[in-house]
Structure formats: structure tokens, C-alpha cells
Amino acid sequence: MENYLLAMAVFAGLYALMALGLNVIWGLAGMVNLGLAGFFAVGAYASALLTVRLGWPIPVGWVAAAVAAAAVGVLVALVTARLRGDYLAIVTLGFSEVVRLLASNEIWLTGGTDGISGIPGPGRAALSPISYNLLYAGLVWAAVAVVGALLARLSNAPFGRVLRAIREDEMVAAVAGKRTLLFKVQAFAVGAGVLGLAGGLYAHFNAYVAPDAFQPLVTIYVVLALTAGGTGRMAGAVLGAVLVVALQEGTRFGADLVPGVSPVQAAALRAGTIGAALIMVLHLRPNGVLPEFSRRYGGPT
Q: What are residue 208's phi and psi, to 5 degrees?
């Protein structure tokens, strides 16, 4: 049971990192990005390939994962520079599926559907499973604390204020002399880099990556986490991620308590319970559990 709880703590931290990355792109800059699984996959494969095939140190692999995803984020931002709203969401979702299909078909590079196995983890060989999970949970949540603190400072800096201006009215921000395209590309790069870092951490924890791990459902869960926690606020992104993982895993045990339910019915009941709980949260707190504070009045928006 302890191993399971520690593993869930690791995954909650990974979801928190992804929600923080999305919060920069969507929560601050207002760009709807449904390609999260794609950037997550880029980071995971970049770190896995560099450490398994080239023998690079694990920390260097994590840095490379963030850099690779940030570079891809710049390309996606430039390609989609003139798109907004639903159009941007559709294109970024398509990007995510292209990355997954490439990972499935470029066998020479990614191993195809067989994936890449034997990805090293820090101290895995010397530690017991529970000690390794405890160590990795500490590493992941330390990354969440550092990234969250840096992004919170960035959010309160002039850069973050410009992103909010672009979110509210891009035309007004441009008239005020701000180079909106440059700021949007930078926001995409920062957010994608955090998503890539989460992918690198996932690869070394799981010791195996395959295309099936990067389904669009990953993106949906992260979007739900940020929406429930509170868009525009870094603490809300982290809280929402913990809430979503707690709902996912808590309902796994709750479904078993319902008598006379088949496994298929239990899965449907579990999904319905998660959806109902999130709807209730958003009904009671439309702006999320921790809404973004108004910069003018100091109260919740």
C-alpha cells in the first residue's frame, strides 16, 4: 500500500508540473493548448533516448527534455501564431496526435509500439522499491516547488502582466507597444519546457515509455486539473492536479464497495463519479478552488 501511495504522489507531482506549464500558456496568455500530451511525449522520449542510447547522465537528460520540448513549443507557436480559440485548440490537439503517431511508426528511433525500456532511474539499482518511490516522490515535488516558485515570480513580473494583457485583449496590448507575437512564443516555450520536464521525469520513474502513454486523455485530465484548481494562479494548478489524482484513485476503491456491479459497470460508475465531482467543484467555485486575484482590487476575480 505504501508503494502505491508513493507512486500516486509521484504522478500527482507530474500532473502538477503539467498543469503549471499549461497555466503559463492558457492561464496567463489565454492560448488554448490541447497538445499537452505531445510536449510531454517529446520530453519523455528525448530524455529516454539520450540516457539509454548515448549514456548521458540522468540530470542532463531532464534538462534536455525541457529544452527539446521548449524548442518544439517555439515551432508550434510560430505555426499557429494567427490562430485563436477553437482553431488553436484543434491544431494543437492534432500536433499531439502527430507526435504519438510518429512515436508509433518511427521504429528506428522510438522502438515503435514496443517503446523504449531499461530507462535508468536515480539510485534504482541500490534502493528497495519503497525507498526508490520515496526518493522519486521527493525529487518530483522538489521540482514542482522550484518550478512553481519561479513561475509565480514570472507571473508577477512585467512579463506576466503583458501576458495577462494579451489574454484580455491582444489588440490593446499591441497598440500599447507590446510585441505580442514574441510574448506568445515565449509563453509557449516556457510552458512547453515545463511539460517536457514532466515527461523526462515520467520516463525515468516508469523505466519505460511507449506511445500508448500519451493519449489525449492525459491532456483532458491536466485541463480539468487547472480548471478545477484555478486558471492564472500557480497554487491553483498544483491543488487542481492533486484533486484530480485523488478523485481518480479514490474512486477506484469506492467502485468496489458497490454490490452487484460488473467491472465494466464499475469503470463507468467511476468515470461518472469523477465527472460529477468536478462539475460540483466548478458549480460551487466557477473560477476554481483558488481563483486568480484581481491585480487592481486584491480580491478574487
A: -160, 135
Spatial distance between the Cα atoms of 160 and 265, rounded to a whole number of angstroms? 46
How is the chain split into domains, by residue range? Answer: 2-213
**DSSP letter string, 263-274:** HHHHHHHHHHHH
> What phi-psi label fits residue 112: left (phi over 0), alpha (psi between -120 and 50 degrees) or beta?
left
Q: What is the pLDDT of residue 250?
A: 77
Q: Which residue would you say has higher pLDDT here, 70 or 32? A: 70
Distance CA 289, CA 62 (A): 31
Contact indicator for 79, 26 with CB cutoff of 8 Å:
no
Query: What does DSSP say about strands 116-117 and 208-209: parallel, antiparallel, or unpaired?
Result: antiparallel
21-65: per-residue pLDDT in tens?
Answer: 999 999 999 898 899 999 999 999 999 999 999 999 999 999 999
Q: Percent of the chain scored above 90 by pLDDT? A: 59
Residues 6+ apart with CB under 8 A from 205: 10, 121, 136, 140
